[in-house]
Amino acid sequence: MDTTADTKQNKFQVDLTLLDAGELALLQKHTGIQDTEQLAKHVQDVVEKARQVFGYGYLTQLLFLKSKFTHLPAYKHVLEIGKSREDALLLDIGCGLGHDTRRAAWDGYPLKNIVASDLYPEFWTVGHEMFKSTPETFPVPFIPGDAFDNDFIPDREPFMESPNTPRPSTDSLVLSKSLAGLQGHITFIHASALFHLFGEDAQRNLAKKLASLVSPVPGSMIFGIHRGSDDVKPEEKMDSRGEKRFYHSVESWKRLWMGGEGQEGVFPPGTVEVEVGVRQLPMPEGMYHLLLWSVKRV
């Protein structure tokens, strides 16, 4: 999730009219609060608590309650396979408070095949508070950790054949505090609002980490949405904390995964298809140029 520090802003005022009907219905269903004024107060209280815990600027926007899945063309394929294939595991990495994690379950993706992950366990704790759930009522395993940490996701090349080791049980996965046991086993990896937080080299490293997790079975996929360049070329900019961020263009994003123009791809040639769409999103600080993308094993 976008982690721009922003603890000094005025108190965020919740406006639930910014949610579409499906997003509002999901929030009402999970919280059990139908009255929109009471619901807005509940969201407001949790947002203020989350800001105190994390100090993250994205929590001052209602974007964190809006589903990214509904904007992603790949999501239809994810749901179709998830509902029809017994072992189709979905990882929501950089899940934040778990809105999209819950959206997948709401849309019929089997709970037993969903795993969530982000940097800190407090994300999931606050998420349970937001949606008035518990580990018993929403039993999706949450594995906290840093995707760049080799103990969390070891460096290795993408799987060309299915792993010889069985997929770990939920209990062993939680106890391991690592995604290492899932390398080569994950059918779908959702990674939204994540890559654009880093520089170019770190994004390549992250792409390799996620590539090691995804299953070699055709149709398996890494997909998401994040900020990109508003030019035909990629851009490097400084964020509000003085850290470099790299915004890919459509073509540079494709080259990252498939290679081309002298650049080696994360995956070997001919093993993936990459689809990239573009969407403009008006924000207070200006227009955001978003990449909606999927990397599918073939």
CATH topology of the largest domain: Rossmann fold
How far do the termini sit from each other? 29 Å
CATH superfamily of the largest domain: Vaccinia Virus protein VP39
Question: How is the biggest beta sheet arranged?
Answer: 6 strands, mixed
Q: What is the residue-averaged pLDDT?
A: 90
**Shape, principal axes of CA atoms:** globular
| Content-based structural category | alpha/beta
Radius of gyration: 19 Å
CATH class category name of the largest domain = Alpha Beta
- Count of DSSP E strands? 8
What oligomeric state is this? single chain
Protein name: Methyltransferase domain-containing protein
Keywords: S-adenosyl-L-methionine, Transferase
Family: Belongs to the class I-like SAM-binding methyltransferase superfamily.
Pathway: Secondary metabolite biosynthesis
Verbal overview:
- The chain is α/β, with parallel strands linked by helices.
- It has 2 domains: 11-66; 68-297, Rossmann fold (3-Layer(aba) Sandwich).
- The chain contains 8 helices and 8 strands, in the order H-H-H-E-H-E-H-H-E-H-E-E-E-H-E-E.
- The strands form 2 sheets. The chain has a 6-stranded mixed beta sheet with strand order 2-1-3-4-8-7, sandwiched between helices.
- Strand 3, helix 7 and strand 4 (221-227) form a beta-alpha-beta unit.
- Helix 2 runs antiparallel to helix 5 (121-131).
- The two termini are 29 Å apart.
- Mean pLDDT is 90; it is low at 1-9.
- GO terms for molecular function: transferase activity.
- This is Methyltransferase domain-containing protein.
- Pathway: Secondary metabolite biosynthesis.
- Keywords: S-adenosyl-L-methionine, Transferase.
- Belongs to the class I-like SAM-binding methyltransferase superfamily.
